[in-house]
Amino acid sequence: HLTTEHAHLRPHVEAIRTAADAGGEVPNHILRELTEAVVGFLLHELIPHAHTEDTILYRALEEALHAPGSARTMRHEHTEIARYTDELTSLNASIIDDHDLGQSTIRELRRVLYGLYALVMSHFAKEDHVVAAILEAKMPADEQERLLEALGHR
C-alpha cells in the first residue's frame, strides 16, 4: 500500500517540527545538529522519494484518470519542498556556535521549518487518502502491485 513508505518517513518529518520548536530555545550546536539531520533527510530520502513519485506514481495517476497534467499540483509541492530545502541549507550554514543568531534569523529558520513540516504533512495526506483511493478505484490489482514494486514498496 502507498501509505507504507510514508509511515517509514513520518518520524523524520516529525523531526522537522522538533527542529522548528528548538529554534531560539536550545544552544546553537544542538540547533545545528537538528537542522543538519533535517537537511540530510530531505536531501537523501525525501527528495529522492519525490523524484520517484514524479516519474512513476504521478504518471500512473494521470494514465488512470486519462488526464495528462492532473498531478501538476502534486509535482509543484515537490518543487516547493526542494525550495524550502535550499532555504534551510542556507540558514543552517549561518548557525555558528557561540554566535547570536538574531531574532530575524531564528524567525526565518522557524518559518522555513514549520512551512516545510506543514507542506510535507499535507502532501502525504493527499497521497495517502486521495491518490491511493483513485489508483485503487481505477487500476487493476496486478497493475497496483507492479506500481508498488516500481516505487520500491515491495
- Treating each run of at least 4 consecutive H or I residues as one helix, how many helices? 5
Overall pLDDT? 91
Distance between the termini: 9 Å
Main sheet specs? none
Number of β-strand runs? 0
Structural class label: mainly alpha
Radius of gyration, taken over Cα atoms and rounded to an integer in Å: 18 Å
Tell me the strand percentage band.
under 5%
User: Which regions contain 5 or more consecutive residues with pLDDT less than 50?
Assistant: none
Helix residue percentage: over 70%
Shape: elongated
Q: How do the SSEs run, as a string of H and E?
A: HHHHH
In short:
The protein is mostly helical and 154 residues long.
Task: Describe the 3D structure.
The chain has helices at residues 3-22, 28-65, 72-93, 103-138, 141-150. The N and C termini lie close together (9 Å). It is built from five helices and no strands. Helices cover 82% and strands 0% of the residues. The chain has 154 residues and is mainly α. Helix 2 runs antiparallel to helix 3 (72-93).
Secondary structure layout plus pairing:
Blueprint: H1 3-22, H2 28-65, H3 72-93, H4 103-138, H5 141-150
Features:
154 residues, mainly alpha, 5 helices, elongated
